[in-house]
Design a protein that fits this description.
Layout: E1 3-11, E2 16-18, H1 28-39, E3 47-53, H2 54-59, E4 70-75, H3 79-92, E5 97-100, H4 103-109, E6 115-120, H5 124-133, E7 140-148, E8 156-157, E9 164-166, H6 169-178, E10 188-191, E11 194-203
Parallel strand pairs: 1-6, 1-7, 3-4, 3-6, 4-5
Antiparallel strand pairs: 2-8, 7-11, 9-11, 10-11
Protein name: Dihydrofolate reductase
Enzyme class: oxidoreductase
InterPro entries: DHFR (IPR012259), DHFR-like_dom_sf (IPR024072), DHFR_CS (IPR017925), DHFR_dom (IPR001796)
């Protein structure tokens, strides 16, 4: 069965992930981690899929859409409005862009024989909806814990709740090794005014 992961960077301890629709940081190494983890597969004949809300899709500059090397699935409650607005762009990219109205229907639109892992990549509304309504579909949270001494305003949070617990660091290392990425990333990092560390949370 295809694994579904949520991947997100959040400011601990409250798990803030954004302010006014923007990331409150620009961490180059964390962005590289996101790109490599969501793109790399153990089976070279398969691809990964990234599932995002409409606002996240629209926040990606058009020249970078869809995210390369991955099947992109956009979730929207209004399929017809999205299709009419982006029909040419979606058609241009063939099977690399799909549109659905829920995570369950997104999984049904994917050719699971050719997909290794599915990543939910945001935004906050989608993360929280998935965790609240269909937690059974999610295998793990790939959570980058960010900390800083700066005062940061946040208006978007991920509700991790009590269903999830942080795994031993070895679980994260084994996961990276399964993708051949074990030598590319350190668990603990610092950039500018931020410290950040990579973790896997699994269901309690």
């Amino acid at each position: 069965m295809t694994k579904v992961s949520l991947i997100v960077a959040a400011l601990v301890p409250k798990y803030g992930i954004g302010y006014k629709g923007q990331l409150p940081w620009a961490l180059k190494e964390e962005m590289r981690y996101f790109r490599r983890v969501t793109t790399q597969t153990a089976d070279k004949n398969k691809k990964n899929a990234v599932v995002m809300g409409r606002k996240t899709w629209e926040s990606i500059p058009e020249r970078f859409r869809p995210l390369k090397g991955r099947v992109n699935v956009v979730l929207t409650r209004d399929l017809s409005a999205f299709s009419s607005k982006y029909s040419e762009e979606v058609a241009k990219h063939g099977n690399n862009v799909k549109v659905a109205d829920s995570l369950k229907s997104a999984l049904q639109t994917l050719d699971m024989d050719n997909i290794e892992e599915v990543f939910v990549i945001g935004g906050a509304e989608l993360y929280n909806e998935v965790l609240r309504t269909t937690p059974e579909l999610v295998d793990r949270l790939l959570l980058t814990e960010v900390s800083t001494e700066k005062e940061l305003e946040m208006d978007a949070f991920i509700n991790v709740g009590t269903l999830w617990k942080k795994d031993d660091p070895q679980v994260w290392k084994s996961y990276l090794a399964s993708k051949g990425l074990e030598n590319e990333f350190s668990q603990d990092n610092r950039e500018a005014d931020f410290q950040f560390s990579y973790h896997i949370y699994s269901r309690c």
